[in-house]
Amino acid sequence: MNKKIPLLALVALLTIGALAPGCTRSLDPAGVYAGDDVLHTTELTITTSYEVVQTFVTWEKENRAALAQYPELTKAADAMRSGAPQWFKSAHALRDAYAADPSPENRDQLQTSLRLLRAALTEAASYMAIAAAASEQKP
Length: 139
Prior knowledge:
Blueprint lengths: L6 H9 L21 H26 L8 H30 L3 H34 L2
Helix pairs in contact: 1-2, 1-4, 2-3, 2-4, 3-4
C-alpha cells in the first residue's frame, strides 16, 4: 500500500498563498498575459488545482482500503470526481470570456469560479496532509 503523501500536495500547500487574489507582481505588457495579472493568476490556479485534484483522487483510489478510517476523505474525493470536470470546463470558458472582454462582470464571474478551484485544491491538499501526518504517527 502506498499511503505516502504525494510531494505535489505539499507543494500545493505552499502554493495556495501564491494563488490568493491581490498578490503583487509586475507582468511584462508584451508578454503572453499582456500584463494582465488576472489571466496570469487564472492560469496558475487552473493548472495547480487540476494537478492537485487529479493527484488526490488518484491517490485516494489507490489507497481506498487503507483510508477507510477517513470516510470524509473518500466522500470529498468522490465529490471531486463528479464535480471537477464541470468546474474546470467552467473555469476555462470564463477565462476565455474574460480574455476576450476583460469587463468587471467577466472578471467577477471568473474569480467566483477560481475560488471554487482554490477550495478544491485546499481541501485535497489538506486531506492528504492529514492522512500523511496520521501515518507518520503510527509505529
